[in-house]
From TrEMBL:
Lineage: Eukaryota, Viridiplantae, Streptophyta, Embryophyta, Tracheophyta
Membrane-crossing residue ranges in chain numbering: none
Subcellular location: Cell membrane
EC number, UniProt record: 3.1.3.62, 3.1.3.80
Name of this protein: Multiple inositol polyphosphate phosphatase 1
Keyword Nuclease: no
Protein's organism: Solanum pennellii (Tomato)
Amino acid sequence: MYYNRKNSKEEMLKNSMNFAPLLLLQLLLIAIAVQYSTADESFDVRQHLSTVSRYGIVKDIADDSFVPSLNLDQCTPIHLNLVARHGTRAPTKKRIRELEAFAIRLEVLVRDVKEQKQSLDKIPAWLMGWNSPWKGKSTGGELISEGEDELYHLGIRVREQFPSLFSEEYHPAIYSIKATQVPRASASAVAFGMGLFSGKGKLGPGGHRAFAVTSESRASDTVLRFHDCCQSYKDFRRSQEPTVKKLKEPILDEITHELVKQYGLNFTKQDVSSLWFLCKQEASLLNITNQACSLFSPAEVSLLEWADDLELFILKGYGNSLNYRMGVPLLEDVIQSMEQAIKAKEEGYAPGSYEKARLRFAHAETLLPFSCLIGLFLEESEFELIQREQTLQYPPKPPKTRNWRGNLVAPFAGNNMLVLYSCTSDNSSKYFVKVLHNERPIPIPGCNGSDSCPFEVFKERIAAPHLKHDYNSLCNVNSEQEKKDSSPSMFSQMFGWIFSQKNSDTPTQKVEL
């Protein structure tokens, strides 16, 4: 009897430990629900879609308490660096196929309810007979009209904000426009250029003009597609995906349980993940919020958004220094362009003989690391940790507030502008760098919380700790060392081939944003 009682106690303890995380998550959902209960009518799911957010919906969500702390009225902008993500895009081909498969899955779930002669009253009408809006499309990932509009009007606003920078006659050496070879990025560059130079040419009723957009090969573009050329990063990302999945699992478990109870359909965690993806696509691309998104409460949306932001943090943000250190070629390019602008100013170059803007169009995988390199979305204490190459804590769960939000860090058409100013006042420094994120001044921990600081301070305090790292060493050191240290035997090669064939049908989890 003693052993039975002991085993019983151990079993009870084990069960209570398994139940504890779910209980904690239920309490968390209640806390978030209380927070949103008085504001359900004003809750806009389109503002909670992480990196799938439309620019116009989220660009003005910011900390209004921040006041630009440096007066640059006696300064003149002499150069602008822009790093922008492409605009709103269609789902990729892979995602389109997944949505078509999900339509079949929903059909099976509804049929199961009918076969069990259960009531269909709980099932939302839209869900019965649902088909993907992208059904039958053989292509995907392209910039859609909303994305064109985002970049076109961004170009107009940039010119209006910095008229002195864009007063010159266009020349590619003065206004350098670069994009990755991915069509949605180059299309974004074209849309931006059409807005930036509208009325400056003689083409059509809009007075458009031709301009050049240049790209490097995907295989060697270490400035804008450094993530694609970095083997160490690919290995790291692959190693962390199980960790991310495990961190997200309790949230999916709890929400799955709630949806099964509420709608009477035997949803799995994968189904809930697909419904959340569908919600984001419908809300962002089609402005449909009363179908997939309506299945989730504001509290559940907030937790799903946090889970997306957490994945972003771990795999593409401050979760590991390699995520952003591999962006050193881009940071070097930005610093070099500023130094060239200062030299042109100091040596009195003639107008029209030097670059005034370097404009780049790429991906979330470009914008996110660059934001981390210059220390955005950090408290000053966290910035000090980054400088010492120490890890940061994960973004806190709702209802706690957090700086790291995908909808602000890298929405569609999200952007960083670094504006170099020449000052003629009694300032101790002649040149200042001002940072704008999504067109708004943003505090820079490396500049003591200001949105501006002397160029030399920016260069030495923010850029230099990163620029001491070499891209090739960061990204190829492991693979190069393996080549030097070992030459695999025929036996190990044979085993490697067998297992690679076995796993060759396993789909990759990488999704480029």
